[in-house]
Fold this sequence. Notes:
The complex is a heterodimer.
Chain A lengths: L1 E10 L7 E11 L4 E6 L5 H9 L6 E6 L2 E2 L5 H4 L3 E4 L13 H9 L13 H12 L18 H13 L5 E5 L7 H18 L2 E5 L3 H6 L3 E6 L2 E7 L1 H4 L3 H23 L1
Chain B lengths: L1 H27 L6 H18 L4 H24 L5 H20 L3 E3 L6 H10 L3 H11 L11 H20 L3 H11 L1 H6 L4 H27 L1 E3 L6 H16 L4 H23 L9 H40 L4 H7 L1 H4 L1
Antiparallel strand pairs in B: 1-2
Helix pairs in contact in B: 1-7, 1-10, 1-11, 1-12, 2-3, 2-4, 2-10, 3-4, 3-10, 7-12, 8-10, 11-12, 11-13, 12-13
Amino acid sequence: MLRLNQIYKVFNEGTPDEKLALGNLELQMTKGEFVTVIGSNGAGKSTLMNMISGKILPDAGEVIIDGENVSAIEEHARAKMIGRVFQDPMLGTAPHMTIEENMAIAYGRTNRRGLGFGVTKKRKELFKECLGTLHLGLENRMTAKVGLLSGGERQALSLLMATFTDPKILLLDEHTAALDPSRAELVTNLTKEIVEKNQLTTLMVTHNMQQAIDLGNSLIMMDKGQIIFEARGAAKQKLTVEKLLNEFQRIKGEKMINDRAVLI
Amino acid sequence: MFSALFNSFESGMIYAIMALGVYLTFRILDFPDMTVEGSFVTGASVAAIMIVNGYSPIVATLCAMVAGFIAGTITGFLHTKGKINPLLAGILMMIALYSINLRIMGASNIPLLSQTTIITNIQDAWAGTGLDNLLNGLLSFVGLGDSLPKTWAILIVMLVVAVVIQAGMSAFLKTEIGLALRATGDNEAMVKSFSAHTGNMKILGLAIGNALVAFSGSLVAQYNGFSDIGMGIGIIVIGLASVIIGEALFGAKTIARATLAVIGGAIIYRIVVTLALRVEFLETGDVKLITALIVVGALVIPKISDKQKEKTRKKRRLKEIQMRHDGTLPKGREEYASVKSDL
């Protein structure tokens, strides 16, 4: 469903701030696969997300979604295939517009927008039904401005808006990081439910190792713009936080030894 | 007095169309578009030069709208494709339009007094209906018979035009494209992630906004009987004044209400200026100063009154706490106030 081929991206090339964001990165995801991504700050997780969504374009390499090479396609056009939830709950919704208007914008993701009304009677029914699955009572507040909702409610709404039109790829960028523990759990459970129900091909970045282990059927660890560890299927099921930390240290440790060998 | 107010209603209605254009760019798109200072005059000059050269005033007015549409489109391109800051893109376009407007007119002023304009067309058509007598009769009936207006045509027709545009605009802003346009001004990252081309949305909004501004400019030229290179100076502030006064007085809860409020704001702005100019001490040249003061007032007064309300609320709260502490709170009040702590 998604394939990243030899992706290479450098920021600020030719300046002292030059930084290799992604170095010959390879990633393959099958349909319905749910991959969680962990890694320290600056490992290239967000760059990876932005690379898939088209916010940044690769210096070299190919992004292939559902067999189509989208490397040169701009963000807004690529968004027809991609649903996305941001870390900041404020980013995923338009605060001065009502819940139903926000849903109508999300509904328009897959088709060409025209001069028909965005919120019709028929769509209202659909929106109501979808909002009901969140169990937050939002279906009774459809004409409320989204800016009045709490962060957790907004993030749950963002998640629904990104998924109810069946995207080919779902990108979740630390979407529970800005919420308090109970709200984060709520959104995490919703994520699990929605992804399972719709069999969405999902890539989720998180800083929470436990979350990365609990969710999804594959896990990748990134460092310095590369994937340094991958666990899929059965191997992923057996992972624990401790094993993951050991693995991290083993890989990092080996690297240090290598560095020392070069230095001597 | 009455006829002065009557005139301010008339011109308020015409300027309301411009204010709706400013509302679209300034409020909906969140784009401080200075282009309007130029496109207002572009509308006036295109209409004036075409009328003087014998074209039908209706065709001339439509061409004026198209000219404004093009001006807005160019500003949009400068911003989205040229990546120029919104304010600067508008200012550049405004200054460029100054020269273009001079070229269009071939002089800094074109008089239209003896020409057939859309205004005279309306008046002629209206005179046949005999509605003036009816409305004037009504006025005399309520005791305002001593200064009857010459014609009701402009007021009524412009009211209809402004309301039709307002209704069209609020309907448009509820369509799929309209929603994407509003979201572009509200949260660009979000609407991009839902596959809307935000650059095109901005261009579209600026084009429609400036088309309305140019339309209004062409009507103002025909209403006043001349087009002048300087008539656009301060037009953005007048537009903002209308939007802000409207919001402060009539609210902006829904799009329909906000757009109606803009029309109301435009009329009230005209009335305030007319009344202010009747003060002996003030001269015609003071209009811009008065405008600036109105805008400052409309922006600051609601904030001050909010703060004052907050202060009195706090004071009352403190007093209550003090009284409870002293045990001097009246019996009835205390029960009410301490319900929560009793639980």
